[in-house]
Specification:
The chain has about 120 residues and is mostly helical. The chain has 2 domains: about 1-70; about 80-120, no CATH class. The chain has 4 helices and no strands. The chain has helices spanning about 1-10, 15-45, 50-70, 90-100. The model has no long low-confidence stretch (mean pLDDT about 80).
Length: about 120
């Protein structure tokens, strides 16, 4: 993910502001691994492990709001009409077929259903 994040920063900010953008990004990358586990442990000890998920709701909302306000698409990206969008119907059909084929309790694939002989004997 790091190369795509840096590419987004490089495309979004002009060269004069690019250094500051990378600096703020670097602060977040360095501070998050130090603060995250410590804060998570404190929340788990004082409240419950379930609160870890509730803390992410306002953080996610804040992140979405700041991203929508501060980050804009570069000029070469423009919205396309639905008629201009290309859809891979062959790939879509193959994904549909794979997911539909899993309904027959087959033992192969991502949605493996245990057969009687696969169950653990007590």
């Amino acid at each position: 993910m790091q190369p795509s994040e840096q590419a987004i920063l490089a495309d979004t900010f002009p060269p004069a502001k690019r250094g500051m953008a990378f600096a703020v990004y670097g602060i977040a990358v360095v501070m998050a691994p130090a603060i995250g586990p410590t804060l998570g442990g404190w929340i788990t000890d004082n409240y419950s492990w379930r609160w870890i998920f509730f803390v992410n709701i306002p953080v996610g909302i804040l992140s979405l709001r700041l991203t929508s306000r501060l980050i804009q698409d570069p000029p070469y990206l423009r919205r396309r009409k639905l008629s201009e969008t290309k859809i891979d119907f062959v790939g879509l059909g193959l994904c549909r077929q794979l997911l539909h084929s899993r309904r027959d309790n087959s033992r192969y694939g991502a949605f493996r259903v245990l057969d009687e002989e696969d169950k653990i004997q007590r």
